[in-house]
Design brief:
Elements lengths: L1 E2 L5 E2 L4 H16 L5 H14 L2 H4 L1 E3 L2 E3 L3 H9 L4 H21 L11 H19 L3 H15 L1 H13 L6 H14 L2 H9 L13
Antiparallel strand pairs: 1-2, 3-4
Helix pairs in contact: 1-2, 1-8, 4-5, 5-6, 5-8, 6-7, 9-10
């Protein structure tokens, strides 16, 4: 699962422990502070989606990742509050995972990372609002509220987890610059500076 720097994959005996240690290291690297329950939730999301059958869904067109807009439609059309919250939770979880682990792959797609950040953050925010009115949901509401408020920062954390042993090419540097322009990611900014690139904020989108 990890890379030892020689280009070979190193097996890890316990995937949850691997993600736990990696997330803690990335949180320190990015200077992001989250509640222990939020950290535990993020580790669980990574562990769950490391299994492709949990991330992808069976559809008439085959096994595929459902578009975020369709997940949002599922939440809107839900027949019960429980179904609605489950749909919102999946929307937030998938958005976080995809934006965190596949930021580089958005380069040639119509939907970019900022779309996933916006959709995921709103899903978690709505979920937190829905849950705060029930005794059972209040404990989870604080977790989802923090996920919503720190979504961009947590995407940076997961980018760090995904790229701890990654060497950036010139193409990657251009992509990092594009990500910084679109999201204002402190992590992308720091990597660009470390690579000798001085980002200029003229025309950058504000979120």
């Amino acid at each position: 699962m990890s890379d030892d720097g020689s280009g070979t994959v190193v097996a890890v005996p316990n995937l949850r422990e691997f993600f736990h240690d990696s997330v803690q290291k990335a949180l320190r690297n990015q200077r992001v502070a989250v509640d222990d329950h939020t950290e535990h939730y993020v580790v669980n999301v990574l562990t769950m989606f490391a299994r492709s059958e949990e991330l992808y869904e069976r559809t008439p067109e085959g096994v595929r990742l459902k578009p975020l807009a369709h997940m949002l439609a599922d939440a809107s059309a839900a027949q019960s509050s429980q179904q609605r919250d489950e749909a919102l939770r999946r929307l937030g979880d998938v958005s976080l995972f995809i934006a965190g682990f596949f930021a580089q792959s958005f380069a040639r797609k119509l939907v970019d990372i900022d779309y996933h950040i916006a959709m995921g953050g709103r899903a978690y925010g709505t979920l937190a609002e829905n849950m705060r009115y029930s005794i059972r949901g209040q404990a989870f509401a604080t977790v989802f509220l923090e996920l919503a408020r720190k979504f961009q920062s947590l995407v940076d954390v997961l980018n760090d987890v995904a790229e701890m042993a990654y060497q950036h090419t010139d193409k990657d540097i251009l992509r990092l610059y594009e990500i910084w322009l679109k999201t204002g990611s402190p992590r992308a900014f720091a990597i660009l500076q470390r690579l000798g690139v001085a980002p200029v904020n003229a025309g950058r989108k504000e979120h």
